[in-house]
Every structure is written in structure tokens, then in C-alpha cells.
Design a protein that fits this description.
Number of helices of chain A: 16
CATH topology of the largest domain in chain A: TIM Barrel
Strand content of chain B: 25-35%
CATH superfamily of the largest domain in chain A: Aldolase class I
Largest interface: A-B, 44 and 42 residues
Helix content of chain B: 25-40%
Helix content of chain A: 25-40%
Oligomer: heterodimer
Number of domains of chain A: 2
Strand order of the largest sheet of chain B: 7-2-8-1-14-13
Structural class of chain A: alpha/beta
CATH class of the largest domain in chain A: Alpha Beta
Number of strands of chain A: 23
Largest sheet of chain B: 6 strands, antiparallel
CATH topology of chain B: Glutamine Phosphoribosylpyrophosphate, subunit 1, domain 1
Structural class of chain B: alpha+beta
Amino acid sequence: MEAMRVNDVTPNDLPWKIRYDASRCTLCGSCVAACSFRAIEPKVERRRLVWSESDYPEPKQRFSAVPVIRQARSIQNYCRGCGICEKICPNDAIKPERNPDTRHPIITRCLGGDSIKRGGRKNLESNTRTLDKIRVGRISQMTDPSLDAQRHTFDMLAPFGRILSPKQLPFQVDENGKLKTVGQSPPVRWIYPVIIGDMSIGALSWRMWEAVAMATAYLNEECGLPVRMCSGEGGMPLRLLKSRYLKYSILQIASGHFGWNRIVKAMPHMVEDPAGVLIKIGQGAKPGDGGLLMAQKVAEHIQAIRGVPKADLLSPPNHQGLYSIEESVQKMFLSFNAAFKFRVPVAIKVAASATSVSVFNNLVRDPYNIVGGFFLDGIDGGTGAAHEVSLDHTGHPIVSKLRDCYLAAVAQGRQGQIPLWAAGGLGKTGDLAADAFKMMCLGANGVFTGKLILQMAGCVGNDMGRCNACNTGLCPVGITTQEPQLAHRLDPEKAAQNIVNYFLAMDQEFKKLMAPIGNSSLPVGRSDALVATDKAAAERLQIQYVC
Amino acid sequence: MCRIGAIKSRNYIHPSQALLLMQSQQKGHDNSGFAMVMHDLGGIFEGYKHLPTLSMACTDEGLKIAEDILHAAGFQRVLQWVPETENRPGLDIIAMPNYVFETFDYPRPYKKASKEEKEELLLDIRLTLRALEEDEKGFVYSFWPDVVTLKEIGDPRDIGTYFKLWEPDDNFTARVITAQCRQNTNYDIVRYAAHPFFLQGYTALANGENTFYLKNVEMQRELHRGYIGFESDSQCFLYSLHYVHRELKWPLIYYKHVITPLSFEDIEMRDDREQLLAIRQSLAHLEINGPNTIIGVLPDNSLFTCCDAKKLRPVVVGRTEDTVVVSSEVCGINEILPGRNWETDIYPDEREIVFIGDNLEVQRWKQ
């Protein structure tokens, strides 16, 4: 008998255990071939069969070599619980099972000497989400009638761009008693109140990114919903930059400035302005940290778009040279406004933080009127890659912070001047319309969502540690990988169709929420329409407590 | 529900006409109050059109405090009119001890002041006087030249009897009278809270419910020092009217564009889309929602009405040669203009302002 070595990794140490039924297995090999993590492998086991055929024990035995499937015992190739093996097995012979006794967080650090990195979003769920303790509780009845979601018309657009106070509008009354414009105003675009959040072409497979772009174009051109998608850091394919579809895209610049060289070079060839520019300062999933694209995902086309070699691409935590908010406003925003000759709104994305209100106040009081949106990203936001400690333990919930920013604007009579866009776990339960609607009542002009879009396309990851392997480049459903054979698992057309259908369903649901409160335009700031079943949340958000 | 009405005439008319106008719509309101604002005054006030008149309901103490404030500010009383009241037993009215209509001359330093300076002074004084509301010593409804206001809690019929408003006379008349029957129901009963509301020459009253009340209030609070109270969502309509027309100095049609903006789709088809979009953006928080009909009076005594964007509340405009009446229900107009040609009645739609200028020409402005 071998001596037991307690520090060897065994399936019991790992977050998922493979449950394998050799009696059902036909040894087709599909599961092993499909497991992108190489977390299962074929193995030959020595088996002993003992039997007796006489009336009293007369044991006979036979040894045989049996092919089986075995779970890899490694902290590199461990099972992520994605369930692809189960999906592909024709005989229900194999599936992953969550291991409540996992020692993974400890042994990974012990063996690797490095922090744990993963994708996904916060995996520490301690209690019910705040948004689920809030209901739309002010129902129009009798003298103030509800509207009819099917028959009435609704005006559901949100502003993206800097909005002037009424007294700043460059208007004069002409001789016919009409207002005429006698000066410049910042550009403002009215768009669908749900933006497809910034997921880069490096984080996503080219097929997934294409699916998102396709869905966006279809929603605009066929469904009449002016949905915008944000490129994420890292630029866009040149062909798209030069196409008329650019008008549906918000270009992002983040601290790594990846892809901007190509964008700037494409400017003379652009036939449309982009929908906007989003300067990413921070991200809810990993506040205080820059983007992270592991070398294994930096495929050839990513190298071309970003102009980089195959290496880990780490955006710095800060924009280099950014000394203060004032500097950001004056230099950065001004230069990007100027780049597109003040025709394209420029917005900022920051991680929600205890200090968000100060940042927002600084921007809303800026005298240049060049910050066209405040994108606030909460702790529940998703990411392609981050340190687990950041994902789980840093950040700030979005709901109260968004409310704080709105109320700060109200206190100054500046609500709406810098549109507020919120994200971070919205739609986490699958119901984005309800979450978005409640956030609007609390003061958001709109919301943005990333993780949910991936889930529409087929992402199997969840917030209980399932999969979350976006950082590895081994996405089992072809969404966050650059491996051709994995990317081809995703059917871009089917993914696009799912996204389109989800938006159409959500659009219906928005109407179903607006009609009962009797509103035909978005109820931004209508906190009186909400009630909370939690006293602390009600008090914090300044809405009515009900029980 | 509220019922609202307005009369504008070439001739001076007595408030009994307003009571009649509202009385026939009695089934539509709840007999909980009556309020009216009279512009372009006749009778005893006719000779004092250029001087501000204080309209106030108060206790004895409140009256003294108010007069002290006005005297300290240098105002000199030139006319006082206290309506004769008849406090018969059984009348449904919760009356204040005193109803005072006093006209004042401006303080000496203001004798040569500009119109704007005087108007700001009048507002400041009225805001000071409104402090009396705190312990219900008094309610100052208006302090403005050529305008008087009366508001009371109770059955409009009995309120009329109490103030002897059912008996027409030539002393207490005006060319424009707006009236509403009902106390506030959304919030507590507050004497001040019955519309019409008045601010710096503007009067507004509304039949409806503004579901963007909170948005309006949060915005308006920071827009102007005179935007206070908010005891009723109808004040929001007045403040937006005042803001658009007086503060921004935009023509009245833009009031409609602010409170019930065209849909984005419709704006795109307009030549003036740039302006309309900018208005919708910058004044998004003054948009109204829910069912509403608004009647407004401007400082030049012109009268208008408009509705919410889905026309969920009715209003009718009827007219004769010398009188135009706006009313929630046509029965009110039938009462006071029985001989008119009802075929020329106007039932305004959701995208227009019906405007009645000083020559009584009725104009329909498409939004």
C-alpha cells in the first residue's frame, strides 16, 4: 500500500466533483473531447472481479484493464462545473457536482503562490438583493387612470450627452414668436435606456462580439429600438469603424488606451460618427484595477486591432497623467470632444464608491459642459478577468450609490444635466426590465448590462462559482475565448437572435411597468412610485416603507 | 374630482357667475371648497389697477402682523374692502375670522422703480407674509395689482351665501374670473391648497392628477424662490407656467412643449426639432404625466387652456360675442351662456392650446 500524501490534490479538494457512472458510459469520448478545461481524462483502471460458482466459497478472480473517465487532479485543469460533459453525453453518464467541502481557495493560493484570477462577478451572496425588496407600489387607479400597455404609446428613450440647464439654452425668440438657436449646445443622443455594456473584442470571442454587433444593428434597423453597444477597451474591427453601423457603437477608451491608435487612424474614413465615447476610469467588478486580458486570449486578430504582441495586457489602474478630476475634465474630455469636433457625446464610467458623489458633483459643476454621462458600475458587475479578491470583496453596491448621486443633483437643481447610467448586477435574476425600471425610479436615466448579454448568448456561468473561467480563454460555450474550435461552438446568429428577442421581451415588460403607474415617458426620479418591504432600504433610499 | 372653470368677458362680471358656472357641475366635485382668482378688476378696485391688492384670510393677530410687515416695508394702505358676511347657522363653511382685501401704494423708494423691481418686491413681501400660514394666523393668497383671490373650505353654495356672492352687485367685479370647487384631496386639507394658485400675475388651476409631481417638485424647488408650498400638484403647473413664460421669457406655446412634449418620433418630423429636443432635454423634469386639464391666466389677463398628452380629462370652451367661458363640463357653460351657439363650442384636443386674448378672439394653437 502506498503512503498517503496529504498534500496531493484530489477531487475532494476541488470546487466540483465529477460524478461518473461507468455502467452507463459507452466510451464514446465526447465528454473528454468537449471539456475545454481538460478537467476530465480517459484512464485505464485495473479491475479485479471475484466470483464463485460452487455451493461453498471457491473464489476465482479475474483482472482486467477497463477504460474509464477520471477527473483531473490539478489546480490548473480543475473542473469548473460548466456541465458541458453532461450536455454532450448521450447516456447521462457524467456530470459535475458542487463540492461543498472544497479546499480550492486555500490550496490554489498555497500551490500557486499567486492570487486567484477568474471571470464572472461577485460570488458571495449573503442576502436578498435590495432591488428585490422594492416593488412598484404606486398604482394608478380611478381618477388617475392606468394606461394600457398594449394600446397606448410610450416614449422610452434616455439621453446620452451633456444637457444644459434651461437658462443656458442658446435660444432667442424670433419675429414670429418662435425660438431660434443662436449658439452651440453639446451633442445629446436619445437612445434606448438599456446599453449593451462594454465588453471588448479581446474579452469576447470574435463570434460573440459579432453576435452582439449584429443584434444591435438588427434592433435598430428592424425593430426600431435605438439600442447602443459599447465597444469595451481595445478598439473595433476596422471594417466596422468604416461602416455606417458605427453610429450604433459607443467607443471606449480605458487606461490601457488599447485600440485607440487604430480608431484615430480610421477617423478620416468614418462615414458616420460613433454613438458616443465612454472613458472608463473604473469598473464595478474590480474597482481600482485596470483591464486584464491574459496572454492566452491575445489572438492574432486582437494583436492586430490593438497593435500589441501576444502578452498579458494589463491596463494600469489609472489613466497615466490623470492628476485630478479637473484635469480629467479639462484635458481628457475636451480632447475627445474635440476629436469628433464636439458632435459626439463623451461620458465617463466609474466604479461605484463611497466617494462617487464627490466625483459626480465635480463633473456636474464643470463649467465646460463636456461630460455627457455618468456611468456608475456597482460591485455586482461582471468581468472577463479579475483577481477574485477584488471581485468578491471590493466595490460598492449600485442601488444606494445611484440614488445618492441623483439626490445630489436634485439638491443642486441639476438633475438630468449629466445623465446617470447605472450597472452592476442588474438583471442578475434574469429580469432586467424590473431592475432597470426601479433604478430609473430611483434616478437613473438608463442602465447598462454586460454579463446578462453573455447569458442570453448561452453563458453557463453563474454567481455560485459555476464556470467563471472567462479569464482562461477556454470558455466552454465559445463566448470568451479566442480558440477557434471553442469559438465555433457559438452560433453568432442564434446568439444575436436571443439578444434581440430578450430586448423585445424587455420592451414589452417596460410598458407593463409604466402602464400601471400611468406614465407614458420614463419615470426617471419617480421614487414615489416605489415602495420597499425593508425598512432600512426604504429609509436609505428615501422611499415609502410598506409591510 | 375637481371641476374648474373660467370666465373672460368684455364687461365686468360678478363672482355669482362663477358660482353658477361651478354649481351645475356639482355632481363632479365633492363640495369641499371653493376658490377663485379675479383679474382685471372692476367695482371699487377699478381705480386702483396699478396698485397691489392684498387678498388674505386671517385671525385678528394675523391681520395685525401682516399690516405691521407691510407698514414696516413702507407700503401705505389706500383702500380697504372687507366683504360683508352672513354667518347663518347651518352653513357648511370653516371660515376664518377676517377676510381682507386691501390696496396699498408702493413704498416711497419704489415710486420710480421699474416694473420688474416692483414685481420682485411684491413677491418678496408675499413670501414674508406666507410665514403666517405656519400657525394658521393667516393665508395670503395674492398680493398683486388688479388681482384678488378668495379661497374657503366648505360647500361652495354656502361659501357663496356666507360672502353674499349670490347677489350680483357692481362693487366686486372683474373681467376675468377663474374658479375651482374642491379642497385638496391628495394631501391634508390646507386652506391655501385649493387652486387656482397665483404667482406674479400668473394664475393656474387644474383638473387632474400630476403623476410627475415629485419630479416637478424636486426640480422647481431649486428654480425660483417663489416656488414653495407644493401643497397640491396643481402648483407645479403654475410654477412651470411662470418659469417658461416669465423666467425664460418663451412664448406661451412652449409651455405646452415643456409640460407635454411631443414624442421623439413626432419631434423628428418637425422643422424646429432642434429646439423642441433641447426643450425636452433641459426641462425633462417639468414634464407632466397623468390626466390633466389646465386653465391659466397670464399677467396681461389673457386666458388659455390645455390638456395632458393623452387627453384624459375633458374641457370645453363656449363663447358669445362678449364672453368666453372655459369649463370642465358643458353644463356649466349652458348655465351662464344659455343662448350661445353651442355649435361653436371647442373641445380642445391633447395637442393644442386654446388661447383667448384681450379682444376675446379664441385661437387654437397646434402644438
